[in-house]
Amino acid sequence: xxxxxxxRRTLIAAFVATASAAMMNAAHADSYxxxxxxxxxxxxxxxTTDLLARIVAERLPSVLGRPVVVDNRAGAGGMLGTEALAKxxxxxxxxxxxxxxxxxxxxxxxxxxxxxxxxxFAPIARIAxxxxxxxxxxxxxxxxxxxxxxxxxxxxGKMSFASPGSGSVGHLVGELFKSAAQVDMVHIPYKGAGPxxxxxxxxxxxVLYDNLPTSLPHIQTGKLRALAVASEKRSATLPEVPTFAxxxxxxxxxxxxxxxxxxxATAPAVLAKLQSAIDTVMKQPDLRARFxxxxxxxxxxxxxxxxxxxxxxxxxxxxxxxxxxxxxE
Length: 329
Description:
Radius of gyration: 23 Å
Largest sheet: 6 strands, mixed
Distance between the termini: 58 Å
């Protein structure tokens, strides 16, 4: 009888604890937010991730009633800021930007990574896709993607392509292009996108695979020539440039993407409030216009759609990394 009584007491205590936690979570959700929210951007100011984050952050207060402060935590290809987000209190007051780098490439190529892109985060919404673009120095004797492939095949190993670093999105897109087009090019890794872009403009390397917003001004001034974009449709800012799919390279046609996530144990009601607020601002015409001016396609995945996309990205990039034998210790 004593054992039976102890069992019942344990079950009652567990029930009370669960009920109390649920009540506390509900009360927290009702009062949320009661203070400023921090949005971690795991890259330096001025890049695509930062620009999109700031556009959303400046509009969320009108819906949530509290400031949203952008916190740039750059380093290690986005891993430092993403790790900081994973270790943050799951109270809804620290959220962060997730990208193809942080939640696709890094899990696929990094041997030592301090977060799990799927188990440590609650997806809230994927907010935009951005075309990747293949650009060449104007001195390259190719005006189209077909001409470039023919030139690269004629002179195997002579062409070089820059990337922000080994294991970066630019590196993997370059390897994917080499495989799809069956060409031999030399990879030149840099310490960041800026130096890679500068040396492509300067002609030290011939090719760069980049997010469209950062290369676009240099394409428009003629310092770089765009050969193809990775996007579902042609970019409105470069309507004359074909997609990789149009150039019969559909495997390279995956755009970059950007979304917002929270630490995994964040209360569902709080996540729902955040998702609803993001949905509201993403429907604002002026926000969409600003995204599009940057070359970004506004969108809004549901949390479940976003989670499925992250899983697919990791699997796809892991396959590319294995084929190209890319593994970062």
